[in-house]
Design a protein that fits this description.
The complex is a heterotrimer of chains A (224), B (245) and C (225). Chain A is built from nine helices and no strands. In chain A, helix 3 runs antiparallel to helix 5 and helix 6 packs antiparallel against helix 8. Chain A starts with a helix and ends with a helix. Chain B folds into two domains: 169 residues, P-loop containing nucleotide triphosphate hydrolases (Rossmann fold); 61 residues, no CATH class. Chain B has nine helices and ten strands. In chain B, the strands form two sheets. In chain B, strands 6-7-8-3-9-10 form a six-stranded mixed beta sheet, with helices on both faces. In chain B, a hairpin with a 2-residue loop joins strand 1 and strand 2. Chain C is globular. Chain C has one domain. Classes of the chains: A mainly alpha (224), B alpha/beta (245), C mainly alpha (225). The interface between A and C is medium-sized, with 31 and 29 residues.
Chain lengths: 224, 245, 225
């Protein structure tokens, strides 16, 4: 399998997105909107919001992620580009990894921009805990995208894809959600690495297992 | 380089299909196709819409797994050595496979990276007449220019097997000449070419042999030159029961 | 070609399952002594525990069928996986219902986010998704392939889901289900019911596989030459 292909594909996706920025901007506003909506649904008591904050943040990431992950393969529908990708020599796993890397980078960029909004609306002391928060976000996003990239490829041709994709994906990534929220909470509380460690380990395990399995499974999803 | 030598050793054409069929649900798109095409040979594949031409080309390109039958493409087994086939095959398909938001050059660079080749991109762009438009986004191009870029991507691959699906759509006269010249070039270096087209006249001009695919079956198969263009037309009408283009 | 030996098993399995279920129900609901702490309500365990264990068995069979299908592309494995998934979903739903029926008089609430029940609920969603995916894909072999991928990933996710939900719960409060040694007087009816539900699963599986086989045969004949 060729690292050059993985990098070329990820770069192509990020370049395309960087050109138009329409998806990036749209999703960013969507994430901020989710944060606000939960504020309305749960507030205005600040204590209640503070308790729910980490959970709300990750719901925002996940809902935004669902939209963003679908986009990664929808862009290959124009001009039958997916067919073009499948004609290239080399392992299909390179296509999966390329899409995964592009997805993770894209989502992390989004999340970095969402954190300040989060700190603002929910009055969260994120500035002291940034390394831990980013580490949790990176591990969680990788796990979410690992399965999401595979399922997005699977559902891209279905008429009911807007429903089938989240329906399939979300139950699978419950462990990611649980661990990411608990880890984020631990860092926000200043409880430090010791408390977050088991959750980060769980995320790491999930990432390892599901990137590996999805790598192999991708071939079966894109063949005809 | 040793690898280059291995590549040129593999780069002879040659297609053998035996009993190839593809079913979708309750219908056969391709029923039973037997075909032998040697290096340096070209085949024009005619047939009405829905006859299975595109499906057959996709099977050859390893995009579609046949329901039954076996075959060898450029010496590689159709079912078990697909990577070898893709390495040595290019398909000029119905879709251009172009990214509209990237420039001409970026599209070609991407294709080169995915093909794992360091090709002379500028020379290719000049050859297809897109050197001046290299910095333009594909979205801004005319459909003829897009088809030429698609052709450049195919040339990049230096394929031993060249498959063309309705290649003459949206091409102006200069581009048609370019395409025909390239087909001749592939044949010259012992590649094999299959061209699926509606255009009897152009198919006849470009290819030595002709076949008609009807309802997934190969009906007529003969050297195209036998009987001239009129003979071909008559054979087409007889095989399909309809008027020809 | 699927061996039709399966259809010969259906009747003996049906008879066996019925007999075992009747015996199990009698042993559990009538003969066994009531639990000292929980009273009569505890008897629902004779239903709840077997159904959850059989559900896990069913999903394991889905996993095996999925792997076998992807490597052999023989339709029989796909039929097996599909059938087992349907029955697994049924047993999972029964498990959750039984858990809720137990929970209401015991804790005063239908749903208490108990670790095991929560995991079971997530599994229900995963395999319902599996079934819906099959229905949403028009081409049969593509649907089988997609389902097999979900079947494999789903099964691999089970231990991770279980662990994460368990940590999620125990770090919050101790597990709500008592986990002591089981009185031998209660163990026998439990095992009897487990065997009975396993037989029921086998019976339903044989029926459903036979149905799937006939379905495939019809489609095969419709594929005109």
């Amino acid at each position: 399998m060729s690292a050059g292909q993985v990098w070329a594909l990820a770069r192509k996706d990020l370049l395309t997105e960087g050109r138009s920025k329409e998806t990036l901007n749209g999703l960013l506003f969507f994430a901020a909107l989710v944060l606000l909506i939960f504020g309305f649904a749960l507030g205005p008591d600040p204590a209640r919001l503070e308790q729910a904050a980490a959970g709300v943040l990750w719901v925002a990431f996940i809902l935004t992620g669902v939209l963003g992950l679908m986009r990664a393969f929808q862009v290959e529908r124009e001009n039958e580009c997916l067919e073009g990708l499948l004609l290239y020599p080399g392992d299909r796993a390179a296509l999966y990894l390329g899409k995964l890397v592009g997805n993770v980078v894209f989502m992390l960029a989004l999340e970095v921009a969402v954190f300040p909004c989060f700190a603002f609306f929910y009055n969260m002391p994120i500035w002291g805990a940034l390394p831990g928060l980013f580490l949790t976000a990176a591990l969680g996003t990788a796990g979410f995208a690992a399965v999401g990239t595979l399922f997005a490829a699977m559902t891209m041709h279905l008429r009911a894809r807007e429903v089938m994709f989240p329906l399939l994906l979300l139950p699978f990534v419950v462990p990611v959600l649980l661990a990411a929220v608990k880890g984020t909470e631990a860092f926000l509380r200043g409880a430090g690495r010791a408390e977050a460690f088991p959750w980060l380990t769980l995320l790491g395990l999930f990432d390892l297992v599901f990137v590996t399995v999805s790598l192999f499974a991708f071939e079966w999803v894109v063949e005809d | 380089m040793g690898q280059d030598g291995a590549r040129s050793a593999l780069r002879r054409g040659g297609i053998e299909l035996e009993g190839i069929g593809k079913a979708y649900g309750a219908a056969w798109a391709v029923r039973r196709v037997d075909l032998v095409l040697g290096p340096g040979e070209s085949l024009a594949l005619f047939g009405p819409n829905g006859a299975g031409k595109t499906t057959l080309l996709k099977i050859l390109a390893t995009l579609v797994t046949p329901t039954r039958g076996s075959g060898r493409v450029a010496g590689f087994d159709l079912r078990t050595e697909q990577e070898g086939i893709r390495e040595n095959l290019a398909l000029l398909a119905h879709g251009t496979h172009l990214y509209e938001d990237l420039t001409v050059r970026e599209n070609l660079e991407f294709a080169a990276a995915m093909r794992r080749r360091a090709a002379p991109l500028e020379a290719l762009l000049t050859r297809v007449g897109l050197a001046e438009a290299a910095g333009e986004r594909v979205r801004a191009l005319s459909s003829g220019m897009k088809r030429r870029l698609a052709l450049a991507k195919v040339m990049l691959a230096e394929p031993a097997i060249l498959l063309l699906d309705e290649p003459f759509t949206n091409l102006d006269q200069a581009a048609v000449a370019l395409l025909e010249g390239y087909v001749a070039e592939v044949l010259d270096r012992e590649g094999s070419v299959i061209m699926a087209t509606h255009d009897l006249a152009r198919g006849y001009a470009a290819c030595r042999r002709a076949a008609v695919l009807v309802s997934g079956r190969l009906i007529h198969e003969a050297p195209a030159r036998v009987g001239g263009l009129e003979g071909l037309r008559a054979a087409y009408v007889a095989a399909t029961g309809e008027g020809a283009g | 070609m699927m061996a039709s030996g399966g259809s010969r098993l259906v009747i003996p399995l049906g008879v066996g399952a019925s007999a075992a279920l009747l015996a199990g129900l009698y042993a559990g609901l009538v003969r066994a002594p009531a639990d000292v702490v929980q009273g009569e309500v505890q008897r629902i365990m004779y239903l709840h525990v077997p159904t959850v264990l059989v559900a896990y068995l069913a999903f394991f069979v889905v996993f095996v069928g999925s792997v076998a299908y992807l490597f052999t592309r023989r339709e029989r494995w796909d039929i097996l996986a599909h059938a087992s998934a349907e029955i697994g979903v049924l047993f999972t739903a029964l498990t959750i219902a039984a858990g809720a029926i137990w929970g209401k008089p015991t804790w005063g609430a239908w749903w208490t986010w108990d670790a095991r029940l929560t995991t079971t609920a997530i599994l229900l969603l995963i395999y319902v998704g599996y079934l819906m995916l099959r229905a949403a894909v028009e081409d049969r072999s593509r649907g089988a392939r997609y389902a097999a991928v979900v079947g494999i990933l789903g099964f691999l996710d089970i231990p991770i889901i279980h662990k994460s939900v368990e940590w999620w719960r125990t770090l919050h409060q101790p597990s709500s289900l008592a986990r002591g040694a089981i009185d031998p007087a209660l163990l026998f009816p439990l095992l009897l019911n487990l065997a009975a539900f396993a037989l029921l699963y086998a019976f339903l599986l044989a029926q459903r596989v036979e149905l799937g086989r006939l379905e495939a045969e019809v489609l095969r004949r419709r594929l005109e030459e």
